[in-house]
Each structure stands twice: as structure tokens, then as C-alpha cells.
Write a structure and sequence with these properties.
mainly alpha; 18 helices; 2 strands; 66% helix; 2% strand; elongated
Length: 363
């Protein structure tokens, strides 16, 4: 439990316009002791707390910051519930919970940061007016955080999310300006830490970096081959998505995809969607089969499962650390995708119907 004696002692001393030396003389302790207390490098003896509190005309609880400790504990519990909701796609519940929480704790930047994030994470029509209003609300909250908060970790998260909010609210120039203020990858903890850390700490960082870079490579390859992007032909888009899949297969060579299985399912689903329009029935059916395999693998994951492939064998998948804006299963999502008109030409194929049946059984 964090006590706030140092912070409160310094505040009360300054209100009385006392130096540390003067307060030390009043309390009968050394100047170094007062300095140490105010730096939170130690606390006064418990017998001294009533004397200090009495001198300043406050209670011992006020000196220790008990009300703030209680608030911090309550905020921790709220954030724990938010994390649990996010694991199961209960995003609307999070927005409602955080909306009330920031009214009660208007200066808690952790809550404000989460509130701004979840306002735009909900799975609504991104072109709709409701979504745009939420983006504008998130922008207001984020700009306030950046003007007041000094916590670098919170500020970094908010700065990154603000870029998306500007863009989704139709404020492209502001989004570009915000992006240009972000730190470069080469200045990040993940990169610099590779040169500073040692031993197990370094190996843990390296494995997390491999995992994150694999995810980034996938996102970049899939993002540059969107179906509506005119820069590549359909065949080239399929080839790029296949490379995204290959990246995962290289790193997770023992097939321990775990959390990443839903990304593989999505990539195969996109390949199928392009292939069927190009008249490549075999590739479309084969890709739907693979998409179903990985969707069901993801839906069937236990609460925890270790990764076993050598580059990531210190990492463990934990459901509680996942986040989704989809209340349903990935199997149900794929089944819904297969209802698209583009699949009408292969809908009566035995293999197509077999995939649909498998997905229904998972639901």
C-alpha cells in the first residue's frame, strides 16, 4: 500500500512557510530525516505521526492520505472490472462504467485514459454519426489529459490513441500533426532496452519484441493488401496475405499460435473473399477451411496456454490479457462472413457446407 506522508508533509510545511530545517527543529529530528520523509525514502516512526499531525492541525489519517489510498483501491477495482469486460467484448458496459467513474474521480488520469479509449473501441459503424460523436468526446478527454497529466506512460498511450480519434472524426490534418509528434520506434523502451538490459530480463524483452514485431508485420502486410486498395492486383493481394501467414508460421513453427490464431483465420478469410471473386474456387474453399480451423482453435483456447516455439517459449497466452470488441466467437464471425453474396457460387459445394456446419457446432 502506498502512503502519501511525504507529499502531505511537504504540502503542510509549505502552507506554514517553513523550511525543512525549521520543521526539523520543531519536531526534534535531523534535517536529513525531514528531507528523507518528503522524498518518500522512509517514514517517521509511528509514535511521531500524532505529533506531526497535531502540529499541523490535521488527523493522522489525513497525514497518511488514507482517503486517497481508499480512492486508489477503488479505482484499481474499477480498472480490474474494465479489463474483465474487455476480455469478453463487453465494451458498452465499460463505457457506462467509466462514464460514471470519471464523474466520481475526475482527476484520475488512468480512468480518463481508459474512458477515451473505450469510447472509440466499441464495434459500431465507423462512418456513423454516433461513432463520430464518440471520437469527438474522446478527443476532448485526451486533450485534457495531455494538458494536465505528467505520467509518461499514460501520456504515450493517449497520444497514440488521439491520432486515431482525429482521423476517425474527420480531422485528418490534426491526425497527421499528432502522428508526427509520436516518438520513433528506435527511441522506444523495446529497442533501447535491447542494448541495456541483461540476462533473463533481456531475454524476456527479446521474446516479447519478437511477438510484437510478428504482430506488426502481420498488420502491415494485411493492411497494405486491403481488398479496396487499388495499388495491387487481386493476385498480388492474395500473395501479400500469404506472406503475412508465412511470418507466423516461421516464428510459431511448432503450431503454437494461441492468441495469434484469430489473425490467421482473418487472413485466410480475406484470401477466400478475393479468390471467390476471381473465380478461384479451390483457393476460396481451401482458405475457408483454414480460416475455420484457426477460428475454432482460437475459440477453444483454455484460460492459459504456454507458447512452445523457441523464439517465444517464455511467453504464456492468458485469456485475461486479451481484448475484443466482439461479444461473439470468432467461429460465429466467420460464419456470418460466409453469408455474403459473393459466396453464392460455391454455397452448395460439399466443402463449403462442411465448414459452415463445423462453425455452427462451435457456436
Amino acid at each position: 500500500m502506498t502512503l502519501y506522508i511525504g507529499e502531505n508533509l511537504k504540502k503542510q510545511r509549505k502552507l506554514r512557510e517553513l523550511t525543512q530545517e525549521q520543521l526539523a527543529d520543531i519536531l526534534g529530528v535531523s534535517f536529513q530525516s525531514v528531507s528523507k520523509w518528503e522524498r518518500n525514502e522512509g517514514y517517521p516512526d509511528i509514535e511521531m505521526l500524532p505529533t506531526i499531525a497535531g502540529y499541523f492541525g490535521i488527523t493522522v489519517d489525513e497525514l497518511m492520505g488514507m482517503s486517497r489510498i481508499k480512492d486508489t483501491s477503488e479505482v484499481d477495482n474499477i480498472l480490474k472490472t474494465v479489463s474483465e469486460n474487455a476480455t469478453y467484448g463487453r465494451i458498452e458496459e465499460n463505457i457506462a462504467l467509466l462514464e460514471e467513474a470519471v464523474k466520481r474521480f475526475p482527476n484520475d488520469y488512468r480512468l480518463l485514459s481508459e474512458y477515451a479509449y473505450y469510447l472509440t473501441f466499441v464495434n459500431w459503424d465507423r462512418g456513423g454519426e454516433a461513432y463520430r460523436k464518440n471520437c469527438l468526446k474522446a478527443i476532448d478527454v485526451s486533450e485534457r489529459i495531455l494538458s494536465e497529466c505528467t505520467d509518461n506512460k499514460i501520456r504515450g498511450t493517449v497520444q497514440a490513441n488521439l491520432c486515431y480519434n482525429y482521423q476517425n472524426a474527420g480531422q485528418h490534418e490534426k491526425a497527421v500533426e499528432a502522428v508526427q509528434k509520436l516518438p520513433f520506434m528506435w527511441e522506444s523502451f523495446e529497442v533501447v532496452g535491447e542494448r541495456i538490459l541483461e540476462g533473463d530480463e533481456l531475454l524476456n524483452l527479446q521474446q516479447n519484441n519478437i511477438f510484437s514485431m510478428t504482430e506488426l508485420m502481420y498488420m502491415t502486410l494485411v493492411g497494405m493488401s486491403r481488398e479496396d486498395d487499388p495499388r495491387f492486383t487481386p493476385q498480388q493481394k492474395i500473395a501479400i496475405k500469404q506472406k503475412a501467414i508465412a511470418v507466423y508460421e516461421i516464428i510459431f513453427d511448432e503450431g503454437d499460435f494461441n492468441f495469434c490464431a484469430h489473425n490467421l483465420s482473418y487472413a485466410y478469410r480475406q484470401i477466400a473473399a478475393i479468390a471467390v471473386l476471381e473465380g478461384n474456387r479451390e483457393l476460396a474453399l481451401e482458405s475457408l477451411e483454414k480460416a475455420a480451423e484457426y477460428a475454432m482453435a482460437n475459440d477453444g483456447l483454455p484460460e492459459e496456454k504456454p507458447y512452445t516455439s523457441l523464439p517465444v517459449n517464455r511467453l504464456v497466452y492468458k485469456r485475461e490479457n486479451t481484448l475484443t470488441n466482439n461479444r461473439g466467437s470468432f467461429s460465429a464471425e466467420l460464419l456470418k462472413h460466409m453469408e455474403m453474396d459473393r459466396y453464392d457460387g460455391i454455397r452448395n459445394e460439399q466443402r463449403f457446407m462442411a465448414v459452415a456446419e463445423q462453425l455452427k457446432n462451435m457456436g
